[in-house]
């Protein structure tokens, strides 16, 4: 009888333990749903708190994230605990970028680079500035004639002022440290009659690996960089101007010769990416990724080997 009672007691304990194990994840899901619904925390913030992945597993010492913001640009660089954000898509994608940064555990952005004052690159920046500790905000010097008067640009300037920040002018040759990585500015190199060519172009070097971020720089800016000998072979190219045929010309590709190409685009009426650009890229690499097809794309590097993952 004593043995039977012990067996019964053991079964009850086992049943209770199993019930607790089942209830914990259910309770967690309920908390996530309720707090997200009432706006206490976002889903992404809570996922980060509980240590859950957002679907893109990041390893390696350097990670470069091409965040899917539709027909726009937004790139996150994380290196040895430091972070830089290049652009943040349209204003409507501000929440997307903020949530993504939260999901990656970002608390501070050492550098925020606004490549140029077009809404599909700078629209979401204001929300980013309001939600994170910010180091430098780097922008191109744009001529008075070309300085925009759009609402998006005015909101950006007002937010910079409200947050007590200052703008740092992008200067070719300036290099910013991100842990063991260096981010060097290669453009703009002159004045233009096209805002796209004012794009801040930057080269990220980590060990033997190089990543080139081009904003919307078109052929005029590409040629200037070529003439000044600023370009070289890179491992990863963020293709200029969403794959437009105004960028990524043959002479440029001959020197850059990328192993991987990333085109950031969404549904659009501009015929981006253009088939001429795709054809040009295919002469150098078959590794062409698109945010409209793969979603957010993440490259990781240990300084020698590069891995790529996407949603």
Summarize the entry for a quick read.
The chain contains 10 helices and 15 strands. The protein is of the alpha/beta class and 311 residues long. Strand 5 (133-139), helix 6 and strand 6 (167-169) form a beta-alpha-beta unit.
Report on the structure:
It is a single chain. By secondary structure, the chain is α/β, with parallel strands linked by helices. Helix content is 33%, strand content 23%. It has two domains: 1-40; 54-310, Ribonuclease Z/Hydroxyacylglutathione hydrolase-like (Metallo-beta-lactamase, Chain A), CATH 3.60.15.10. The strands form two sheets. It has an eight-stranded mixed beta sheet with strand order 6-5-4-3-2-1-14-15, covered by helices on one side. Helix 2 runs parallel beside helix 3, helix 3 packs across helix 5 (125-131) and helix 5 (125-131) packs parallel to helix 6 (151-162). It is globular. Mean pLDDT is 88; it is low at 28-58.
Order of helices and strands: HHEEEHEHHEHEEEEEHEHEHEHEE
CATH structural class of the largest domain? Alpha Beta
Low confidence ranges: 28-58
Number of beta strands: 15
Q: What is the number of helical segments per DSSP (H or I, 4+ residues)?
A: 10
Q: Would you identify the CATH H-level superfamily of the largest domain? A: Ribonuclease Z/Hydroxyacylglutathione hydrolase-like
Terminus-to-terminus distance:
58 Å
What fraction of the residues are assigned to beta strands by DSSP?
15-25%
The number of domains is 2
Q: Helix fraction? A: 25-40%
Output mean pLDDT: 88
Might you state the CATH topology name of the largest domain?
A: Metallo-beta-lactamase, Chain A
Biggest beta sheet attributes: 8 strands, mixed
Q: Determine Rg (CA atoms, Å).
A: 23 Å
CATH level-two architecture of the largest domain: 4-Layer Sandwich
Name the shape in a single word: globular
Identify the strand order in the major beta sheet: 6-5-4-3-2-1-14-15
